[in-house]
Predict the 3D structure of the following.
Amino acid sequence: MATLSVCIGSSCHLKGSYNVIQTFQQMIEEYHLPDDTLTFNGAFCMKQCAEPGVAVSFEGAVYHVKPEEARSFFRETVLPVLERGRQ
């Protein structure tokens, strides 16, 4: 099972973490991802405050995702890993 975490610390909150979370939740529903495919949660500060975008951890790597990039990040980074896991 893959793990996707979005920082909800104060800096990331100001950068739009709520919007990133909402977008990811919508996409999980759109793609009808089974509960045993992805663990999705919020996380406190990931110590990435100086970087642009919201800190997002996926499978051990930290990315910086702007709210307007959340859909493409999910499609291009998260979905391919989940698809490989289903095979």
